[in-house]
Amino acid sequence: MTETSTGTPRTCVTENPEYQFLPAFWRVAAWRVDVQGLVARSTLLCESGGVTSGRPIEPPQRRRVGRPPTLDREGALLAARTVIARRGIDRTRYSDVAEAAGVPVTTLQHAFGSLQAMLLESVSTAAASEIAVLRDLSHDSTLSAWERIQEFIRGAIDSPDDPDSWRVWLEFWRIASRDAEIGEDAGRIYEQWWLYLGELVQDGRDAGLFTSPITEDVRATAIALVGLIDGVAAALVLRADGPDHERTRAIVLAGAAAMLGVPPQPAN
Predict the structure, then answer these.
(1) SS3 for 174-226, per residue?
(2) Could you tell me what percent of the chain has a pLDDT over 90?
(3) Which of 4, 48, 57, 216 is 20 to 30 Å from the Cα of 186, by its Cα?
């Protein structure tokens, strides 16, 4: 045993049999307890077999690993759609979405991995949800096939659950034209629309409501109806000076009636 200049006992590695197995050149730390004071003291084993000063120190604290930040994913995707509709997908930044969602940028990065992944998921989710919304708007089986198609058209144009729907849909088209994976998503979404409207067209033909020769090809009729909605809406809903929903509805309903062979109906 040796003492420091203050008289505090210290133990050298060469004097403590517990440490005889350690190579002398290792620098390691061991702990011993002052039985009287129950104070943890460190014993530093030095290259030269040196000693510690015996100065009381606090024991090391285990570092707590933080839990990943939580995120309302649906809310974040909705915030992203709002920003995309305002700025366009090419000019949307993490900071824009973070501000709109009320969360730190790091939370979005942790949840989505990359800005591109977040934006693509946002527009894909919005597009995929359209068919569910439109089915709900025209699900009443007590209505005729034509009345259900009118409900579908009004819902598609007005997009009551998402006022930014058409601008986001336009961005979705842009991405789908350049990205093969998103293009496949777009194809699946359109296929659902065509199948659903095809069912309504077939119901109308079976009931004698649709008499136009074009309706003999049910699938072609469904594709033409979706094209009519998209084309007119893109021209009149996406105007820089604001959407013209009323005129869009009137044109699409009149065009659909002529295509199907039913009397045109006034827009509500």
Answers:
(1) HHHCCCHHHHHHHHHHHHHHHHHHHHHHHHHHHCCCCCCHHHHCHHHHHHHHH
(2) 32
(3) 216
